[in-house]
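Please fill in the sequence for the structure shown.

STRUCTURE ENCODING:
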């Protein structure tokens, strides 16, 4: 079997497995194998094929890492949806207490000393499992 056929079969397998994982890394490695297959088809030696596949895989991995770090984090977006929602006070004393929100009890604290618990409280921020409330 020709070397380029082996590279293209490897590329197809990697891309196929990528369809089940969704990480994009195997897609990059599949692309690297496909390009190494093209290099083999053009008559490059085995060392150049490996160098081509390794270089593309390394550059693709670095590009994916950079892309993943620069994109927004979905967990912070979910918390942002809570900001601005009103809560019901269950117990409150000295700027801390428990409130009912989304059918559950949450620990809460006032964002400042000027928060009036007799007026409706609104979520201003989420710190872990603690709601920061204000008026």
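FILLED IN BY: designer on duty
SEQUENCE:
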């Amino acid at each position: 079997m020709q070397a380029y056929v082996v590279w293209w079969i490897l590329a197809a397998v990697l891309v196929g497995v990528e369809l089940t994982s969704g990480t994009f890394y195997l897609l990059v490695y599949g692309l690297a194998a496909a390009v190494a297959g093209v290099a083999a088809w053009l008559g490059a030696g085995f060392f150049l094929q490996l160098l081509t596949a390794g270089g593309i895989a390394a550059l693709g991995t670095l590009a994916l890492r950079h892309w993943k770090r620069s994109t927004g984090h979905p967990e912070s977006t979910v918390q942002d949806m809570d900001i601005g929602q009103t809560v019901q006070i269950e117990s409150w004393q000295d700027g801390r207490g428990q409130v009912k929100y989304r059918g559950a009890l949450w620990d809460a604290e006032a964002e400042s000393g000027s928060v009036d618990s007799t007026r409706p409280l609104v979520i201003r921020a989420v710190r872990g499992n603690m709601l920061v409330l204000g008026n």
